[in-house]
Amino acid sequence: MPSVKVRDTEPFDVALRRFKRACEKAGVLTESRKREFYEKPTWAKKRMKAAAVKRLAKRLSRENRRTTRLY
């Protein structure tokens, strides 16, 4: 869990902004959203496989687009 020490002359808003940035960097919010509900292992595998297929299709379309340009 990220922590922020508030300096003597620092306004609360600035400290809060630093804390939010530290949480974002550590991935606290994304991790909590991911763990909000239980995900069965089969669902996780299915999600990962779908992401892999999407990445592959994206890469292939990029390569195909790159080779068809003849100018």
Share in β-strands: under 5%
Shape: flat
What is the straight-line distance between the termini? 53 Å
The overall number of domains is 2
Structural class: mainly alpha
Helix content: over 70%
Radius of gyration computed on alpha carbons: 21 Å
Detailed description of the structure:
The protein is mostly helical and 71 residues long. The chain folds into two domains: 1-37; 38-71. It has helices spanning 12-26, 28-34, 41-68. The longest helix is centred in the last third of the chain and has 28 residues, at 41-68. The termini are far apart. The mean pLDDT is 91.
How are the SSEs ordered, and which strands pair?
Elements: H1 12-26, H2 28-34, H3 41-68
Entry summary:
InterPro entries: Ribosomal_bS21, Ribosomal_bS21_CS, Ribosomal_bS21_sf. The protein has 71 residues and is mainly α.
Key features of this structure:
71 residues; mainly alpha; 2 domains; 70% helix
